[in-house]
Amino acid sequence: MSDTNIDRETMGRLAKALSFISSAEDPAVVAMKLAAESGVKKDIKQARTLFLRVKPAHRNAALAMLMDDD
User: Fold this and answer.
1) Burial of residue 50 (number of CB atoms within 10 Å: 0-12, 13-18, 19+)
2) Which of 10, 12, 25, 38 is deepest in the core (most CB within 10 A)?
3) Please, is 66 exposed, middle or buried when counting C-beta atoms within 10 Å of its C-beta (0-12, 13-18, 19+)?
4) How far is CA 23 from CA 36, 52, 69, 70, in A?
5) pLDDT tens sequence across 9-35
6) Are residues 4 and 47 in contact, defined by beta-carbon separation less than 8 angstroms?
7) 11: closest CA among 2, 39, 25, 3?
8) pTM summary value
């Protein structure tokens, strides 16, 4: 995920999946929702940084939920 760009819609869906796995108050979830709504480059960078700090198992589970959704 080092150079992956996530569009705003996908980031919002990923935030919902992660909030289901962890909590809606998780800093990564809050940052991802903000980035999905604003689209501001700074917000997107912060969301990506916090998402990469999430436990790998939670991160992988959230990504798997998106794959199952398609």
Assistant:
1) middle
2) 12
3) middle
4) 17, 16, 20, 23
5) 889 999 999 999 999 999 999 999 999
6) no
7) 39
8) 0.84
DSSP tag of 47: H
The CA distance from 45 to 23, in Å, is: 21
Helix (H, G, I), strand (E, B) or coil at 54: coil
Q: pLDDT over 90 for what percent of the chain?
A: 76
Per-residue pLDDT averaged across 62-69, rounded? Answer: 87
Q: How far is CA 37 from CA 10, 14, 44, 62, in A?
A: 11, 13, 10, 19
Calculate mean pLDDT across residues 36-46: 93
Type of residue numbered 28: A
